[in-house]
Amino acid sequence: MSAVDREAEVTQQHGINDSPVEEIIVTKQDSIDLEKEGRPTADGEEPTDDEKRALRHVAENLPASAWLVAIVELCERFTYYGMSGLFQNYIQRPLDGSQGRGALGMDHQGATGLNTFFQFWCYVTPIIGAIIADQYLGKYKTIVLFCIVYMVGLLILVLTSIPVALQHGAGLGGFIAAILIIGLGTGGIKSNVAPLIADQYKRKKMALKTLAKTGERVVIDPALTIQRIYMIFYGCINVGSLSLLATPYMEQYVGFWSGYLLCLCMFAVGTSVVILGRKFYVVRPPQGSIITDAFRALWIMIINRNMDAPKPSWQLEHRNVQSTNNWDDHFIDELKRALVACKVFAFYPLYWVIYGQFSGNFVTQAGQMDGHGIPNDLMQNFDPISIIVFIPLLETLVYPALRRLKIPFLPVTRISLGFFVAALAMAYAAIVQHLIYDAGPCYEHPLCDASIVNGEAQGNNVHIAIQTPAYMLIGISEIFASVSGLEYAYTKAPPSMKSFVQSMYLLTNAFGSAIAEALTPAAYDPAILWMFVGLAVASTLVSVIFFALFHHYNSQEEQMNALDADDDMPDAHHPDSK
């Protein structure tokens, strides 16, 4: 087969594109030197170490099926944020006869507590979704099943939020039932959508490619493509979350039920895309009892205080018994690799406490200021807007510039920076809260009787727009901490442990919600200012400690990113597989 034929075949099989996006430092002289050595590797083959260092690394375009998964996630996040962004007002404000002015009347602490519980529940349930997917149904069928569960919860929420239902006392019971069912649906989808989108990309090893237009030889780097996939994935999440541009106005001028109905309709669109696009997805079959076996093996490690204790060979050598478990020594070695990846996630719970403020206490804070006609829960949109603006800037300008300057910006560094930016967001929120307490008419007791105008309490004399940087800083922190966490959960996990490690990463969000729930008693005026200060200090410390403990992983990045194609599962259910 000629070089041209080989190039055409590789291009057809892998969708290699001629538009390099990611790059490692390289000069034309590097490429010329390699050619002079007379040992260039053929296109489609794995590059040598010298070629990896000298040639430009590029990412491939996303397969069409990955875009379909991204659209599904966009619809789900449109629903989740458009709905949950109204919860603080829905729970906190009393029903006063006006459709959009309130509903359950549980005050600030009650609203923060119930809202935080919903976030906690949404990130515990991914374990259930991961077990069902890995043991019984596979990712695709599990997503379809939990989409139906999700829609049932949304329907309950819509029906119990209409004015007549609220007036007859169905609001609280219906809301609790709805968030329990929606949380179950959310978890079942979240634990499988993130791995499913990366599963659509099948290349596991680096390969060489000669660009047709310029003749330049480049390295196709799967790790960069996975990074691009999750940046686009996160961008779609935040495009979806712009539903909060619409639902607060629907709440204010029509009623909560109208916002919830819009979310139900959008979710129906996403579910239709899942079902109608079935034949385009790379669908992997269930892998057996991976997660339950992993937890059983972990328990054996703990009680024996030895990470090799679950291995059948160790049992035979030290206990003189034949193991009756379903795993072999290789499975335990992979579990140990997964645990190394999971160590990085141990510091995330505090970050999620801070992240959760933008849909909870930040909404209440906005309601304590002069809104100038802007709904207090509309301000949340500055979080996704900042992400949508800064992701392209980072991808096209900042990251390439850092590489040209030979400044490494690897995952551990990005995560640590994300924690620090989150600390800045909380410090700024504390400053805003101080400004509110310094302003009349209510000072340290916002929305007091002295602020009532035409029967409605008004915020203190501070313009609501001053809160914008707090949301923007939270959004920027997500690009570094949250996106890098998704990437780390996929790339650092062994092939058989993708869902397991992803569910462990999502579980850190539940732990964060549990911590936030414990902080709920401090969510009152004026104590909440000091809660913001405490979170800012704690996140700064976590940023420093995290980098000190894990910065050495940056030097092992390429080794840990090596994806062994021989260990990966065949795409048996893909229509192109034979």
Automatic annotation (TrEMBL):
Region ranges (Disordered): 1-51
Gene Ontology CC, one term: plasma membrane
Keyword line: Membrane, Transmembrane, Transmembrane helix, Transport
An annotated Gene Ontology molecular function: dipeptide transmembrane transporter activity
Membrane topology type: Multi-pass membrane protein
InterPro entries assigned: MFS_trans_sf (IPR036259), POT_fam (IPR000109)
Biased amino acid composition, Basic and acidic residues: 30-42
Signal peptide (UniProt feature, chain positions): none
Transmembrane segments: 143-166, 172-198, 229-250, 256-277, 338-355, 385-402, 414-437, 470-491, 503-522, 528-550
Compartment(s) of residence: Membrane
Family listed: Belongs to the major facilitator superfamily. Proton-dependent oligopeptide transporter (POT/PTR) (TC 2.A.17) family.
Protein name: Uncharacterized protein
Source species: Penicillium chermesinum
